[in-house]
Amino acid sequence: MTRLPSTPTPQTIPPEAPILAPVQAGELLAPPLARRTMRLSIVEGGFAMFFINWTSGSVLTGFALQLGASPTTLGLLASVPLLGQAFSPLAAWLVGRRGRRRGVAVAAALIGRGMWVLAALLPLLPLPPEARSALLVALVAFSSLFIAANASLWTAWMGDVVPWKERGRYFGLRTGVLGVVGMGANLASGAWLDRVGAPLNFQVVLLGAVVAGGVAAALLARHDEPPMETQRLQMRATFTLPLSDPVFRQLLVFAMYWAFAVMLSSPFVLPYFLNHLHMTYLQVAVWSAISAVTALIVAPAWGRLTDRIGNRPVLAVTSVLAGTVLPLSWMLATPERLWPIWLSGVLDAVIWSAINPAMFNLSLATTPRENRAAFIALFSALTGLAGFLGGLFSGPLLELDRSLTPGASGWTAYHTLFATSAALRVLAWILLRRVPETGAWKTRELLDRRHLKRLKRLRPRRRRRVRARSARPH
After folding, report:
1. Using CA atoms, how far apart are residues 401 and 378, in angstroms rounded to an integer?
2. pTM for the whole structure
3. Could you tell me the domains of the chain?
4. Which ranges does the record mark as transmembrane (predicted)?
5. Is 60 exceeded by the pLDDT of residue 468?
């Protein structure tokens, strides 16, 4: 669920990455090395998905409820990871000083994931529930500082690895594959949590997440790293340089608004499933599985579409859907009528498998290659801050209605929260219109039947070009 650019110093390909083919104009990494890293990134992402799914979502929500967390605490747990993104510019500054990303990214991943061992020990501490919940929030916040730094560096890193003409297809495929891996992780944890008593069930899952996160960090260390087109920026320039770019500022305004609107309700979707709809952990895992299978089917198609028509029109359409049909499917469900939730699993995949890669690609398309780490880090920091504020407000808004376990029917605080977030999401397209994207269709062209025929005419020519390229000697 939620679950989102001076003269460079000449550098060379790292000595541990021998050049196997000439680097083409505009490419920073030899094509065979880029292909190797792209394949390895999918495997690395699979292990990272185990860590992500076993330290968030229904696992984290259930663990927090087991520790006695209040609604405000649940909102904080969902939003403090976004606050951690505010420290991403520090990682970008450090990388700019060192001239390499790999060491900092791997270290951040190991530290941020490794400290979840402490979370597994929380039930053993002789403390009141309030203190345990507060410690869990602090641990998630501190871990997120490092995980967010790793994520922003990885984004800039892969932006230099994946050829820009293939970003939609590649990240669409990666999103679909990782969605299936996440499905397996959710089904396994859901069955385990329902079968084994608390808190042992949560402790085992959290320790398994730490192991998977360590394997992912080891695979990340084997990624080939392109030379960085950057100069050593002062800390202040890490903030001021991206903000001086008018195109980047327009995207930033939209992304910050979107993060706030989404996080106003996102922290309480899973508590709504568990508390109001009385779903089991296995049922929540089945919902995730439906979403993952659907994402595997539709994510590559969205990727191909964004390669052809641009990211902005896809974002415009799917952001409106995220504010209409998705919240409506949650609100129509009751404990005795869960079919809207199963439908929402399909809708969730269709919508977010378009939004997430499109937002990612648009952030790369609107940032220059020079000092890209600084642009991505500030983007991560400010959108994270906006998302944190949304999550921070969501808990108190929900607590305005004390009925956290209401009857099977009737309007509840959950419904009010979903409706408020939905209205804000629908309005996001107004800000998106101001974001320029070279070669992108207008949104009305995507919705026009006459222009949709252009996509069918484009397909044969594209295939012929691909066959022609593959026939050339390498």
Report:
1. 36
2. 0.72
3. 31-471 (1.20.1250.20)
4. 45-68, 74-96, 103-122, 134-159, 171-193, 199-221, 251-274, 280-302, 314-333, 339-362, 374-393, 413-432
5. no
